[in-house]
Amino acid sequence: MMSNFFLYLGMGLFTLVFLCLYRGVFGPGxxxxxxxxxxxxxxxxxxxxxxxxxxxxxxxxxxxxxxYALLNFIGTIAAAKYLxxxxxx
Amino acid sequence: MTRxxxxxxxxxxxxxxxxxxxxxxxxxxxxxHHSPGGGFQGGxxxxxxxxxxxxxxxxxxxxxxxxxxxxxLFSSFGLxxxxxxxxxxxxxxxxxxxxxxxxxxxxxxxxxxxxxxILGVEIGVGITVMAVMLSxxxxxxxxxxxxxxxxxxxxxxx
Lengths: 89, 158
Prior knowledge:
A: mainly alpha; 87% helix; B: mainly alpha
């Protein structure tokens, strides 16, 4: 029962990733693209945690998702700074 | 050349986050054989903390903390730990990286010697990966211009 709940939650987030991907590929302007990529990273993090709940090994997947959040944060900062300085990090 | 950012929020957040990221990197290295992670992944996180500092504080400030020379020395030092443990096992009469032979030096049972040996190797790998990632990022952020070339360019401008 609870496992099915997490499965459907993960599937719903999985479809939302594609909506964000549309904004990332066709979105007007660079700012929309950066925000879309950042949102995809956040959704991936939650999907990883849901996978951990489904496989009953949350303590493993928490580690991976924390690294994912960290690298997503650094990537977003780098992209935003690149944009601010006009092609220079 | 990477410059310091004007935004005080990003600078403060990066400075406050850096020690926590490094503690987490050490946890990933130390806990590599019980959970996902290990030397390479921990080294990448450790390198990412320095890269975050470099992005937010500029390359001059980052070079005061960790110069390019020091990054190169660290990368060699990590490799020295790795190959030193391997050769030590070879000297003790086993195969290369056969940690069980270290039990006579460490005065523990062979199973614990294997655990300690792989921990030492992972520390070496982590140091190397951190230093090499930082060195690559230094090269990218300076555009491949060496420090002595930079002084020459400034003289030519004058």
